[in-house]
Amino acid sequence: MGGKSYFCDYCCCFLKNDLNVRRKHNYGIAHTIAKKNYMRRFEDPQKILNEERLKQPCQRYFNGYCKFEMFCKNSHYDQQQLQKLQKLVEAQTKKDSRKKKKPRRWPWKTRAQKELPPSLREIDLAKLKHTNWELSWG
Asked: Is residue 32 classed exposed, middle or buried when 0-12, 13-18 and 19+ CB atoms within 10 A define those classes?
């Protein structure tokens, strides 16, 4: 290819760096499927599990090939994959529930007040009343 080229990260291919060529590629079905497959990695596993449970198994996919891939209205997950996904979701919810139970402690509440330097300790109002403010500091 002569001139500058554009690399599509989703499809792993080089294109001519022309607006019309890139637009045609970006709206094509191959690019759309590749982009959806890539973005699916970042979706919440609970959402994916709920969506896949509602779908019927795709007969084309399990017989060898389904041309619709991620746009298929049927599920491409078998029972074993759904069980793995279920375990992943359970582990994630267990991990999240452990985090919620423990209250976060602030750094200044982890030490006893006696260990703090005098400037950071609570002010004793009784001592403050008896302070002589007319002393010279220098």
From this structure: middle
Residue 6, φ and ψ in degrees, nearest 5 = -110, 135
Q: What is the value of pTM for the model shown?
A: 0.53
- How many whole angstroms separate alpha carbon 29 and alpha carbon 35? 10
Q: Which two tokens stand for residue 70?
A: 């991620």
* DSSP states of the chain: --S-EEEETTTTEEEES-HHHHHHHHTSHHHHHHHHHHHHTTS-HHHHHHHHHHSPBPHHHHHT--TTGGG-SSB---HHHHHHHHHHHHHHHHHHHHHHHSPPPPGGGSS-GGGS-TTTSPP-HHHHHT--TT----
76 near 66, Cβ under 8 Å?
Answer: yes
At position 91, the amino acid (one-letter code) is A
The tens digit of pLDDT for each residue in 64-94 reads 988 887 788 999 999 999 999 999 999 988 8
